[in-house]
Amino acid sequence: MKTITVYTTTQCPYCVMVKNFLTDQNIPFKEVNVEINPEIMNQLVQKTGQFGVPQTEVDGQWIVGFDPKSMMTALERI
């Protein structure tokens, strides 16, 4: 089973789009709201060099923003 984690904030419209896309595809995922734990955001910036959300990790592969094509490609590779 693939591990998918979506890093989000409360007011991010693209975060909602990623979550809706995964839900519509019946793909289970874990959501981590970085507003609740800013230390997690610091860890994300160190890993990816990106400050924005959403950031989605698919078994170690990172996708920044709402990019359904890259998400599906990452899911097919694993």
UniProtKB/TrEMBL annotation:
Q: Which PANTHER family match?
A: GLUTAREDOXIN, GLUTAREDOXIN-LIKE PROTEIN NRDH
What this protein is called in its record is NrdH-redoxin
Q: Name one Pfam family in it.
A: Glutaredoxin
Q: What region holds the Glutaredoxin domain?
A: 4-63
Q: Which SUPFAM superfamilies match?
A: Thioredoxin-like
Q: Which GO terms describe its biological process?
A: cell redox homeostasis
The record ties this protein, via CDD domains, to: NrdH
Superkingdom of the source species: Bacteria
Q: Which GO terms describe its molecular function?
A: electron transfer activity
Spell out the InterPro entries in the cross-references.
GLR_AS, Glutaredoxin, Grx-like_ET, Thioredoxin-like_sf
